[in-house]
């Protein structure tokens, strides 16, 4: 049993001054303010002084990190990737696929399921909670850098193959709702608890609305790889920004979206429905050069990841995304943190992640007032 304390704590919805967080067996067993009662005597205490405690970050869209691509990495590669994520405050994540041949995708899903189910992982590492299936059910028109030869129309049979290969660990699925068969697959995936996310799409407004009616509840990297917003043709973005049934994620790196557009999305979705993602690739945290993204190679230069002149993911880290939101949209630290913690957890309908309360895993970060990471704690172990 160990005690953690600091100047304040964000749950993130509530602020607690001089918090006392008692951890046993990797879980929070007590959480209260020193104003109500003192720190238990006889227990070791980690006091982070003027720091702020907040839930560990959850990245629901990440392709790689530290030179490792999630569709290619073996056990040692995942260790390096997950340690790098933890250094930037991420304690949980959804490894994300990219469109590839069906057999390659099935093989990747099996390996990712193995990683998710692995027991006895050492401390100091982010933990995979489930898989984000991005592709092959996307639009040719809005495919971005996804290989066109591997894009497929959604069918229940093909979704079932992916589901079985992943052993039920698909947590998020990006789909273009205008594709033939999309509504049936959306309904099927939603019935199994998958967070169905509309994206990589050229859908018009009515088609996007129909996708929500079928079970979609989220949107993938808003504005990017989507039909542009028009004042007489609002399209998919019009639906994403105006429908409160949808949460929406965005890449707040200042490259994928201009800062005023980041602010626009955050204003539209508000502090309850905006979700920060990185869309990071294997080049994150590495020198400039060429790196893998699924089955192809991306060149990274001046902070941009490019393939055939198009943006191909990012080298954004989640702690930087939080700080950017504070700068671009003038959000305070608590709201920015919520977009990286509770909001993605709600999108996935997780109740023991993205929040600090009694009974949940002791995954949290220690932040400076400007959002910089001072320390990451995973299952009660400092990293």
Model regions low in confidence, pLDDT < 50 over at least 5 residues:
none
Estimated share of beta-strand residues: 25-35%
* Total DSSP helices: 10
Distance between the termini: 17 Å
The number of E-state strands comes to: 25
CATH architecture of the largest domain: Alpha-Beta Barrel
| Main β-sheet, spatial strand arrangement | 3-2-7-23-24-25
What would you report as the Rg, rounded to the nearest angstrom?
20 Å
Number of domains: 2
Fourth-tier CATH superfamily name of the largest domain: Metal-dependent hydrolases
Assign a percent range to the helix content: 25-40%
Shape: globular
CATH fold-level assignment of the largest domain: TIM Barrel
The secondary structure category is: alpha/beta
Mean pLDDT: 96
Oligomer designation = single chain
Q: Can you summarize the main beta sheet?
A: 6 strands, mixed
* CATH class category of the largest domain: Alpha Beta
Describe this structure in words.
By secondary structure, the protein is of the alpha/beta class. It folds into two domains: 2-52 and 371-382, Urease, subunit C, domain 1; 57-353, Alpha-Beta Barrel (TIM Barrel). Helices cover 27% and strands 27% of the residues. It is built from ten helices and 25 strands. A hairpin with a 2-residue loop joins strand 20 (296-301) and strand 21 (304-307).
